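Researcher: Good morning. I'm working through a list of sequences from a screen, and I'd like to move beyond sequence-only analysis. For each chain I'm collecting a predicted structure so we can compare shapes side by side. This is the next one on the list. No need for commentary yet; just the structure.
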Amino acid sequence: MKANTYLNFAGNTEEAFRFYADALGVELTDIVRFEDMPTEGESIPEHEQEKVMHVGLPLDGDQTLMGSDILESQEHELVVGNNTYISLHVDSKEEADRLFAALSEGGEAEMEMADMPWGDYWGSFSDRFGVQWMISYTYSGQ
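Model: Good morning. Structure tokens for this chain:
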């Protein structure tokens, strides 16, 4: 079994995923828009046709960060909450610092990167899109 994180945005999915791809140093998969779907296109108002139906960002191994725009015409409502984090576990302290700096740009740090009592080098923040992240590096031998 694998778990992927799926994020919903209120019209800025493409901007968010281009930012994440750049910060993480990976390539986006194809962006599928609502207008690209043969049956969906007929029931989606013209002003929502360009919104992102699905996008994927392949991460290491078998993981994918996925996302889409919500559709007000379908009575979807985006509520940014504090119940979801994306937790990235990296292979070095340097990579942890790099990712923290890149992804938190324009956001708000909750806990700066630091050595934690449980033995990890760890930090957390909300990015400029309101998505919450944790970055963790476990020192070798622990």
